[in-house]
Amino acid sequence: MTRSLRTTLAALPLAGLIGLGLAVPAGAEPPGIPDPATAQTQLGELTVAPEGSMDGYDRDKFPHWNEGSDGCSTRESVLKRDGDDVEVGSDCYPTSGSWLSPYDGETWTQPSDLDIDHVVPLAAAWRSGAAQWTQEQRQAFANDLEGPQLIAVTDNVNQEKGDQTPDAWMPPSTDYHCTYASMWIGSKHKYQLTVTEAEKGALQTALDGC
């Protein structure tokens, strides 16, 4: 299936897809997403502080896509978790499946069309407290399969996001803003990272729309 055809199909309503006889992927999400009420409480518990500097930042200080006990990398584990009817080879890499990217509503059948997004980007974490962590703590954050920190999404949407915080970037799909804000808050709360005033305001606006 070409990217242009996938884009066209993704724009069709659910009923249209069913009418075409196509399977609609489940669009799995990471575990540990707080419900809106819990996210509201957690947002109030986050420390508000100006962003720190990028001095000393390097992605290599957040070792990621580690191999787990099952022999699969973190990226491969998220692809298996977030896809529908995913089959993998002996090397854990998906050989078939489909993935619904909740950020933009696009559906993909090739793993190469997907990035694994760090919901709170590594650089944003560095600026909000991770600069003071040990390498082991940063590695745990970058490979967290138990919290709402990793999700499979359309590659160019993730690249557009970069290291921006919610006051500067939110997913193109406005229907997902509530969930995205809840994931962001849940991850920052879990790791006791700070938020800026502007960031907190954007998160509150998203929660108000839940």
UniProtKB/TrEMBL annotation:
Q: Which Pfam families match?
A: GmrSD_C
Q: Which residues form the GmrSD restriction endonucleases C-terminal domain?
A: 110-203
Positions of the UniProt region annotated as Disordered: 50-77
Q: Which residues form the signal peptide?
A: 1-28
UniProt keywords, alphabetically: Signal
Q: What is this protein called?
A: GmrSD restriction endonucleases C-terminal domain-containing protein
Native source species: Saccharopolyspora flava
